[in-house]
Amino acid sequence: MVVAVTDQGPSILTVGQGSALPSGPFELGHRSLQSGLRAWVEEQTGHQLGYIEQLYTFADSDRIGEQRQQRVISISYLALTRAEQAAGPAQRAWRRWYDFFPWEDCRAGIPPMIGEILQPRLLAWADGASNDQVKRERRQRAAAGFGWDGHAWNEELVLQRYEQLYEAGLIEEAMRGPRPGVSLPIPGIAMTADHRRILATGIARLRSKIKYRPVVFELMPPVFTLLQLQRTVEALSGRLLHKPNFRRLIEQQELVEETGETTADTVGRPAKLFRFRHAVLDERVVSGMKLPLSRS
Amino acid sequence: MVVAVTDQGPSILTVGQGSALPSGPFELGHRSLQSGLRAWVEEQTGHQLGYIEQLYTFADSDRIGEQRQQRVISISYLALTRAEQAAGPAQRAWRRWYDFFPWEDCRAGIPPMIGEILQPRLLAWADGASNDQVKRERRQRAAAGFGWDGHAWNEELVLQRYEQLYEAGLIEEAMRGPRPGVSLPIPGIAMTADHRRILATGIARLRSKIKYRPVVFELMPPVFTLLQLQRTVEALSGRLLHKPNFRRLIEQQELVEETGETTADTVGRPAKLFRFRHAVLDERVVSGMKLPLSRS
DNA sequence: ACAAAAGTGTTTCGACTACACCCATGG
DNA sequence: CCATGGGTGTAGTCGAAACACTTTTGT
What we know:
The structure is a homodimer of 296-residue chains.
Chain A: E1 2-6, E2 9-15, H1 33-45, E3 52-58, E4 74-80, E5 92-96, H2 112-127, H3 132-146, H4 158-167, H5 195-212, H6 226-237, H7 243-252, E6 256-262, E7 272-276, H8 280-283
Parallel strand pairs in A: 1-4
Antiparallel strand pairs in A: 1-2, 2-5, 3-4, 6-7
Chain A binds a DNA duplex (27 and 27 nucleotides) through residues 225-227, 242-245, 247-249, 266-272, 290, 292-293, 295.
């Protein structure tokens, strides 16, 4: 799962009609899995990868080989890069991740589809439970996950939300196989196999990680304005931030330094340009960025 | 890596003279890796596992098979259990984890060995660097990791500290292989292959996890006093906590409820007994426990 | 009485929030 | 002049940290 932030928002590299994550066999002859992965992706896509992190290793039954004697092991990774480089061979394209998870983008307020589509269908699912105990648990979980009745929205619960929707049979992938779906799936583009689940895991990990490690900078150009940085964090977390407080937090933590230059081309007052202070990585244990949420 | 907290402190289940973590081949015929693992460990050791979490998947060159055509893939796990059950077959024993990492136990203050042994040898290693830039970086990293000159001790940096010591050639495992060690290793029991590295990863993960998930309770008996709970958290994190504030934090978060009983057998005033409120897991996203550090 | 453990009250301090406001530039 | 983005000051709020102190038991 290769992530970049383009002018279209946070995006992932896809293959095959944009419905699959890039994948390939283990490369032999590399020092480690990570270095093999890095070389493979850079060869295949022409993208220099910045940060790489292992997500999860699967070997579940729906991945068991035909003879049922050999497991297929899949190791999923999250990688960050800058989107600028050329697109490389066809069949590979950047796709906005909110095309797959439209309910995860709360930058323009809680998306109407949550109240209009997800809530009634999840509640219907809860009411379909056989006993009251289970009904209450399902309603409780849905409320906590989607921020209903008094619960605040928590942008990190990407995977939990996906799993609840899957369990409720609202996700297209859950309608495949033996029992084909009896109703329409909710909006959001489906993916091959369990790739959308891996994507949800990756988004959740990234939303969590930006708060305690300065990984955002892997997605930024070498030099940027504070507003560009804020827009990137907002795009990843799916939430709007409070500008003045955001700037203060960044500068307090000494994560960035001024280059001395300012932007010239834009509307409005020219902004100071900053670069990431790589030195902080040695100086101390760096926490990432708190999210000073904006109430709007 | 199976963890329990015994009266000896936090311990791991070991095999083979207490210098290896339990390990085995993938089990076929299970729904998932986790359920296979759970069944395997319970059969082998007679311990019911509570929480299980994947740590990391390795397939590095020092694990490549003899013909160099087949990688060996190792998936490491962290599991929590209660220590009470019988020991099971011989060859398996609980070992305190601080026997392997004596510098990680700061409950009685920063251990003298850090200043007396680690600091001089790490500084000597730093000074052995070829140029001044590298020298400064090494000293900087050591200071940040071990809490020297103005840096606070951070109990989560278990893996970073281990890797620094390894890189500096002070760890017995680093002295194996082509270039046998030229000096004595520092205190701390060595383990088979890279098992001590896996252990460091697991300790770090657990120390981090208790802060944002209520996993401590997997290590507690069904009913416990707040002091027992505090001692367990202290044992895991390797730090002393402030009693009054600890109790308030626990009760504020409504993680526990009174059973109505009190202890009878102990010295001092009888303590109320508590149990974990499993209900919170549905109610809301539960954060674990902040660590109200004690200055002493 | 004293030690040991359980528990309570209160003050202080600093971080995050929110709101109000000013600055610089292009159209 | 006004829209857009850049940027500063400051009062309020809330939670964590520190300190002091009381209560209940066993020896």
